[in-house]
Design brief:
- This protein has 517 residues and is mainly α.
- It has a single domain, classed as Orthogonal Bundle (Hydantoin permease), CATH 1.10.4160.10.
- It has 19 helices and no strands.
- Helix 7 runs parallel beside helix 11.
- It is a multi-pass membrane protein.
């Protein structure tokens, strides 16, 4: 990330001793108006500061390519192909994905507007509802989920790279049979290589991530479409529209709506911290346009590819594939196999960067704003993702179910509190400079920096979400856990939220910094 040579406007500060320390420079005091309170060095640095409106770089195309990469992740293909295996046919899969995409378009658009208006990242956005200190709770939950998945996704990408290298250089099979802390020598080399590539990209900041996504998006779309066409051609130009045990009646409709609900749950993380990206968006129109083409349209395109791949392969040999990687392995031409494998690696890195790297970076920066910047927090996040030996976690079902499942169950309640507070109670009137003060008179200081009303709404909704996630007796509604959690938290907070305060709309421009996000 490029470092700014200027402190926030209206800030008196001594020149930093070196270029790198500029990133950590904190304003001693802001005197840009009567509403401005002292800015705390424990709440502000140049990564957490609001982004200036002028110079923002995220266009509709930037947002579209973000979704072009993430929607087509291997995990999403595994989920959608699973619907085919469950007994849903082609049109039922498209309907399920369409229902989920419609919800997501609305949720992500309103979430994106929050980032565009305030220009702040998710940990700072959370201060509005949870308080300047209480915001650590949602930031760390979101970041904790992401950093573990960063390591796991890097490991899964390394499996693709191992297969590719062995196909090109069969002799490498000799170093893929041993085990060092649960991973072969080739496994360590491929994991380390992908870890270095992703860490290098992040060291150059959000703008480098934006450029990478813009490059990867079209490549992924073309690759997946090509794989679908190749499969249908191999199947003789037609596909099987369902398996031999297609669901009917009530069971069919339940799986359709459950599939749509799970598609929303897949993006439970993004609906929380989408502001990390849209804080750099040029306009509301760019968010709407990028989301429209990137979510409903792109999701239906994704659904068509899923149906073509699943139906084509089922017609060929009666099997249901679990991932596009299964089709890639069957490509007879070595050159095409290499190209397709490289595209899958490009995709996995793209998804990992935006879905699992950005959130922990901002969470750590928010935790230690005097010590960390985007690049340093990125390096720490990467190291955590490495030292947890994610391949061992991935191979332990208890970790996935109880740790990641438990944290994931908390995302809906967090969203319910934040979205209701912002839109229905405050009517989007935000005093942005007050998000950076620990002055007890500040409107987001609440009680010792924590909003007890937000905690009171969060706890019962979180408890229910955890019960739904873990109790076998509630398994029938587990697909809808995100909606239960978000809905209950939103309802409780709407009832107990403070309506007596006079909400003010104060721009963050006086303490904003040049957008490098």
């Amino acid at each position: 990330m490029q470092l700014s040579d200027q402190a926030a406007p209206g800030v008196e500060s001594s020149p930093p001793p070196d270029h790198q320390s500029i990133r950590h420079q904190v304003p001693a005091n802001v005197e840009a108006g009567a509403s401005m309170l002292s800015v705390s060095e424990r709440l502000y640095n140049l990564d957490l500061a609001p982004a200036k409106i002028e110079g923002r770089r995220w266009t509709a195309y930037s947002i579209f390519t973000l979704w072009a990469n993430d929607v087509h992740s291997l995990g999403n293909y595994g989920f959608a192909l699973g619907l085919f295996a469950l007994g849903l046919g082609g049109w039922q899969i498209l309907l399920a994905l369409g229902i989920g995409a419609a919800f997501l378009f609305v949720l992500l658009t309103f979430s994106g507007f929050m980032g565009h208006k305030t220009g702040v990242p998710f940990p700072v956005m959370s201060r509005i509802s949870f308080g300047v200190r209480g915001a650590q709770i949602p930031a760390l939950i979101r970041g904790g989920v992401a950093v573990v998945w960063f390591g796991i996704q890097t490991y899964l990408a390394s499996l693709v790279l191992r297969v590719l290298l062995i196909a090109l250089f069969p002799g490498l099979q000799n170093i893929d049979n041993n085990s060092i802390l649960g991973l072969s020598t080739l496994g360590w080399l491929t994991f380390a290589a992908l870890w270095v590539v992703q860490t290098y990209i992040v060291q150059h900041g959000m703008d480098m991530i934006r450029k990478y996504e813009a490059f990867a998006g079209p490549v992924i779309l073309i690759t997946m479409l090509s794989l679908a066409i190749w499969t249908v051609t191999k199947a003789g130009g037609s596909i099987a529209w369902s398996t031999d045990h297609q669901l009917q009646g009530g069971a069919m409709w339940r799986e359709i709506f459950a599939g749509g609900a799970l598609w929303v749950s897949v993006y439970a993380t993004f609906v929380l911290n989408f502001c990390d990206f849209t804080r750099g968006s040029k306009s509301r129109k760019s968010i709407i346009k990028g989301n429209f083409w990137g979510i409903p349209i792109n999701t239906l395109f994704f659904g068509v590819i899923v149906v073509a791949m699943a139906g084509g392969q089922f017609k060929i040999d009666g099997t249901v594939i679990g991932s596009p990687a299964d089709i890639v392995k069957a490509v007879p031409n070595t050159f095409l196999l290499v190209i397709a494998s490289l595209a899958l690696l490009l995709l996995t890195v793209a998804v990992n960067l935006m879905a699992n790297f950005v959130a922990p970076i901002y969470a750590l920066t928010n935790l230690f704003p005097k010590k960390l910047n985007f690049a340093r927090a990125g390096l720490i996040s990467a190291v955590i993702g490495f030292v947890i030996l994610p391949w061992n976690l991935y191979n332990n079902p208890n970790v996935i179910v109880y740790f990641l499942g438990g944290l994931g169950a908390l995302l809906g309640p967090l969203f319910g509190v934040i979205i209701i507070d912002y839109w229905l109670l405050r009517h989007s009137k935000i005093d942005v400079p007050a998000l950076y003060t620990e002055d007890p008179t500040g409107c987001y200081y609440y009680k010792n920096g924590i909003n007890p009303r937000a905690i009171a709404a969060f706890i019962p909704a979180a408890a229910l979400s955890l019960l739904i996630a873990f109790l076998p007796a509630l398994n029938s509604v587990s697909s809808f856990s995100w909606f239960f959690g978000a809905g209950i938290a939103a309802l409780v907070y709407y009832v107990i939220g403070d309506r007596s305060a006079a909400f003010e709309d104060v721009s963050g421009e006086p303490i904003a910094v040049e957008s490098v996000h």
